[in-house]
Amino acid sequence: MLDILLEVDRICKKYDIPYWLSSGTLIGAMRHDGFIPWDDDLDIEMMRKDYLRLMKILPDELPDWLALQDDETDPNYFYFYAKVRDRRSKLLEQNAYDRMWKEQGIYIDIFPMEQHPIWLHKLTEKTVGHMYKVWRTSTDDKKAIRKVRRIFDFNNRFLFPLFRGLLSILSPLTSSLLPLTSAMGIPFHNPRFAKEIFPLTTHAFEGHQLPVPHDADAHLRHIFGNYMQLPDLTKLKPHVGQIEIYE
Question: Cis link prior to 172 (omega < 30° from 0)?
Answer without folding.
Answer: no
